[in-house]
Design goal:
Length: 106
C-alpha cells in the first residue's frame, strides 16, 4: 500500500477548510505518541506520521475531526452532530483507528 503524500493531505485540508469555513495556518506531520492529530487555537493542524500509512478515508476523518475543533473545541453533542453531518461513517472510522492503535501499540 502506498503512503498518502503531503500534497494529498494538503488537498484534503483545503477541501474541508472551504466546506467548514475555517482557516488553517499550517499543517505539520510528525511522530505523536498518543494522538492521531491535534489542532491548536492558532490554526495549526498536526497529524501523526503513522496516519500516512493508512487509507485516505482515515486521514480525511482525522483532518475533519481536527478542523471541526476550530469551530467547537470539545467532543460534546454538537461536535458529534457535525461529524455525523459531514462524515456519516465517522464512528466506524474512529473505532477502526482505535483498534489499529491497540493492535500496533501506538
Amino acid at each position: 500500500m502506498n503512503e498518502i503524500t503531503r500534497e494529498e493531505i494538503l488537498a484534503i485540508c483545503k477541501k474541508w477548510e472551504k466546506k467548514l469555513k475555517v482557516n488553517v495556518k499550517r499543517v505539520q506531520i510528525r511522530n505523536m505518541k498518543r494522538k492521531w492529530g491535534s489542532c491548536s487555537s492558532k490554526g495549526v493542524i498536526t497529524l501523526n506520521k503513522e496516519l500516512l500509512k493508512l487509507p485516505p478515508a482515515y486521514v480525511e476523518y482525522v483532518i475533519v475531526h481536527e478542523l471541526l475543533h476550530m469551530i467547537i473545541p470539545n467532543h460534546g453533542r454538537t461536535f458529534k452532530t457535525l461529524l455525523y453531518a459531514y462524515l456519516p461513517n465517522w464512528d466506524k472510522l474512529h473505532q477502526e483507528l482505535e483498534n489499529f492503535e491497540k493492535n500496533n501499540n501506538l
